[in-house]
Design a protein that fits this description.
The chain has 337 residues and is α+β, with helices and mostly antiparallel strands. Helices cover 29% and strands 24% of the residues. It is built from 7 helices and 17 strands. Strand 8 and strand 9 form a beta hairpin. Helix 4 packs across helix 7. The longest helix is centred in the N-terminal third of the chain and has 22 residues. The protein is globular, with a radius of gyration of 20 Å. It starts with 14 loop residues before the first helix and ends in a 6-residue tail after the last helix. The mean pLDDT is 94. The structure holds 1,6-di-O-phosphono-beta-D-fructofuranose. 1,6-di-O-phosphono-beta-D-fructofuranose (FBP) binds next to strand 5. The site of 1,6-di-O-phosphono-beta-D-fructofuranose has 12 residues, from strand 5.
């Protein structure tokens, strides 16, 4: 017979409660960043519902034209963009937004807002229609322009170290929100019947090393020679390849199990494919909080100088030992052992 203890087991710590507790650790905290994180989580819940129902409510498929990056824009790219912008406009904490789906800075009308947000509303768009995991990536900065004035590009080009928070939402076998405010990184799993994110992965630490590498193998012959050498070398060591083609899903797997994600420069994208402000910086911030590493092949991603809002960068990110070995190989290719 069940004891009282077994009945009514706690369901867990909600994201809301966790944000509140984290905020109380900072006497100077005013709650605005907390509210911003809640606004992003709310938009994530709505986008999650629309992704799940896409095939039923005509949300699957392409818009039939390209986005500002010249990539085919999916209907869900547009919807996710609308949902996150609306949540940030209504939330009132963000004064401006940079989105992968928009050429220019989006002004929310909240000039009194203390924060700006850079985001990739739906990453891995090529996988949306085939029911493969996709994600949202966000990066938050405290503005440098005076509160009450119109934000400027300077608020976005502060550099990766100036992020006050970053995270991703993974729409996968379950939907998870993983974020950091610079005091470690935790993951929350969405419970749709309660409409709540619950703490499921407290204080994530990425394994120091791994045996999995993640890259688009079709471009191997175009990768820098040292990178080809490194991949050939770890293959000989018996490492395995995993590539979903949705960076958030690939990164999340490697974060928990150990591994390295590589998107080197290739002739088609000589500066790298991935965008610095809303893909590389936030994921580097998170992975470093989990004791991993992220580089552009020459320096830490967080040290890369931002010059313009849709700037691209090569990206090598994941378990410390793997990224370090790759960096050594890039710096001294002849010393592959
Ligand atoms: P989007 O944000 O436009 O989806 O682009 C990023 C991305 O889809 C990553 O998620 C993924 O890792 C990579 O591009 C796939 O690129 P490729 O199709 O060249 O392998």
């Amino acid at each position: 017979m069940e004891t009282n203890k077994q009945l009514g087991l706690p369901v867990g710590v909600t994201l809301d409660r966790y944000i509140k507790r984290s905020q109380s650790a900072f006497s100077s905290a005013t709650g605005e960043l907390s509210q911003l994180l809640r606004d992003i989580a709310l938009a994530g819940k709505i986008v999650n519902r629309e992704i799940n129902q896409a095939g039923l409510i005509g949300l699957a498929g392409s818009m039939g034209h390209a986005n500002v990056q010249g990539e085919s824009q999916q209907k869900l790219d547009v919807i996710a963009n609308i949902r996150f912008i609306r949540a940030l406009v209504n939330g009132g904490e963000a004064c401006a937004i940079v989105s992968e789906e928009e050429e220019d800075i989006i002004y929310t009308g909240n000039d009194t807002g203390k924060y700006v947000v850079a985001m990739d509303p739906l990453d891995g768009s090529s996988n949306i229609d085939v029911n493969v995991s996709v994600g949202t990536i966000f990066s938050i900065y405290r503005r440098v322009t005076p509160i009450g004035t119109k934000a400027t590009v300077d608020d976005f080009l502060q550099g990766g170290h100036k992020q006050v928070a970053a995270g991703y939402i993974l729409y996968g076998t379950s939907t998870m929100l993983v974020y950091s405010t610079g005091q470690g990184i935790s993951g929350f799993t969405y419970e749709p019947s309660l409409g709540e994110f619950f703490l499921s992965h407290p204080d994530i630490k990425s394994p120091e090393n791994g045996t999995m590498y993640t890259c688009n193998d079709a471009y191997m012959e175009y990768f820098p020679e040292a990178v080809q050498g490194y991949i050939q070398h770890i293959r000989e060591r018996g490492y395995t390849a995993r590539y979903i083609g949705s960076m958030v899903a690939d990164l999340h797997r490697n974060l928990l199990k150990g591994g390295i994600y590589l998107y080197p420069p290739v002739p088609k994208t000589p500066d790298g494919k991935l965008r610095l402000l809303y893909e590389c910086y936030p994921l580097a911030f998170l992975v470093e909080q989990a004791a991993g590493k992220a580089s552009n092949g020459l320096c830490r991603i967080l040290d890369v100088e931002p010059v313009y809002i849709h700037q691209r960068s090569p990206l090598y990110i994941g378990s410390t030992a793997m990224v370090e070995e790759l960096m050594e190989t890039i710096q001294k290719p002849q010393e592959l052992t």
